[in-house]
Amino acid sequence: VAVIHASGAIFMDNPGGSFISAREVREQIREARHDDSVAALVLRVNSPGGSSFASEIIRQELELTQLAGKPVVISMADVAASGGYWIAATADRVFAHPGTVTGSIGVFSIVPSFEESLAALGIQGDGIDTAPISGVFSPAKAMSAPMQRILQASVDSTYQKFVHLVARGRQLSPEQVEALAQGQVWSGTHALDHGLVDALGGKQAAIDAAAELAGLDDWIVRDLSPPVDPRAELLSSLMDDRSASAEVNGSPLGTIYQTVSRLSAMLEMSGSPGQVYALCESCEVTLRQ
Questions:
Q1: Kindly report the CA angle at 5 between 28 and 281, in degrees rounded to 5?
Q2: H or E element: which one contains 102?
Q3: How far apart are CA 69 and CA 269, in angstroms?
Q4: What is the pLDDT of residues 242-274, one digit of tens each?
């Protein structure tokens, strides 16, 4: 039984630190799928989500593994919300702890612009556009109405895809999922009550279930995740300490720092086509495996 750990926000590539790289996880899943000695796969998820495109890349690889005849079981850690739930939606079995923060079925888009801030500094932008949607992502210009409609259509389409994936994977109707969606967050216990997860339990319960689904009487566990780089772990710890010190006593500086940090993290996900994200912004993720 192969085990892969996926902890942190979801990006296409790892920007450094404690994040999930869709490219890296995709290769780990492919390794399990093509390895004849692997009969089942467990993905341990601890993520508030991130890029909807990157989340779908991971989910597709998991489904290809299922189509290859290898059961896929999801084990949720502290958080599996938005994109973290997206990648779990169509697995054969989903386990969560009673207190796991899960669900948050919803997507959004963010395209920052600073035309008013620049104008306050006496800086103006000018130019000639050859189409209604040209230059739409310029930070010095407000988004045009046609582009706003296009972006909203992309968000709506991605949201409907999310809902229908959950409906198919959890054997619910789209209407049932819609009642649980719209960004609502559930505990593992309530997620079980609503059919968003199949059972309560930790990683070992998920491994046992994967072995059972694969019809194994005797098995060993193989962790396919690369070992944690001590330098990256130390850097992440230092960054967490810096963030904590900036938020001391809820100071204005701390508030500004927190806001800029969140915006910076979102902008780093800008490799997501369509600028659409499945991210639970209020979900705090620890590095506990």
A1: 115
A2: strand 101-103
A3: 33
A4: 444 444 445 555 554 555 555 555 555 545 556
